[in-house]
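Working notes for the structural subgroup meeting. M.R. asked for a predicted model of this chain before we commit to crystallization trials. I am recording the input and output together here so anyone reviewing the notebook later can reproduce the run.

Input as submitted:
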Amino acid sequence: MKPTVSIIVPCYNEQATIRFLLDAILAQTYPRAQMEVVIADAHSQDKTRDVIADFQAEHPDLPLRIVDNERRIIPAGLNSAIAASRGEIIVRLDAHSIPIPEYVERCVNALEAGKGANVGGVWMIRPGGGGWMAESISFAAAHPLGVGDAMYRLNAKEGAVDTVPFGSFRRELIEKIGGFDETLLTNEDYEFNTRVRQSGGTVWLDPQIRSTYIARASLVELAKQYWRYGFWKFKMLRRYPNTIRWRQALPPLFVLSLIVLILFSFFNQLAQLILLFEIIFYLLALTAAGIELSIRQRKPLLAPGMALAIATMHISWGSGFLWSLVSSPFANG
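Returned structure, recorded in token form:
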């Protein structure tokens, strides 16, 4: 008998995407009788619960229930869903994700083969809306210039990594290292995987475990997302300073250099020249990446779109990180 699997999903106002996820879960090759779905909903204000209810009525053979996420933050939702679940193996998914049909089966196989304590795969990123800007954002979210060496977003090889999105693990792992940290509003996966590694476990990435992630549709949504990522990344790094990677340090250093050079440029000509050189070099790098993409995809508007999306990611992430740094002495957490 194959182990039972609980698919846990934190959710808030996801009426546009939750049905894609539920249909993908329904299409899993893993035995349906061995699966359950637990959705932790943070009191959605849209029609998310109606969409879920319609799905339940159409497919009563797939056990699915909703638990209330009273704190309305992702890690609390994950912990609530885990507490309400019964499976031997936990598979964490996201309401913006669409796993391939073999997703659960491959996660279980990798865990049973002992490849890692937490096993995950790679993202294939899809636009969150129509138009050239949404398409540009989806490409930027998977480009090395935008995400550095985040292997789960790139063409990765199988092996041990720092973190994976939407990991899968045995229930005993929670009993060993604890649940998701509810003092972090984002970066909860990275923090969880840090504890996995510190406990002697391996975080394993298998590129055959794939899911499609629906990216943000506009620059405003992208800026809010990456500002939040940067802000909470510093909170996490205060506890685990040795986990910082070069790709995480560059955006705040870049934003800080711009701030310092702009201030000094009011009364120092050398600062003006350095600032001009830095901006030109940065714009050339973004332009080159955008032109290469637009030629490859044969879509001219992807050139400015890619540049705008990557710049938004860098500046928002770096600004959020710096604001977290300067405000942390005056705030709890």
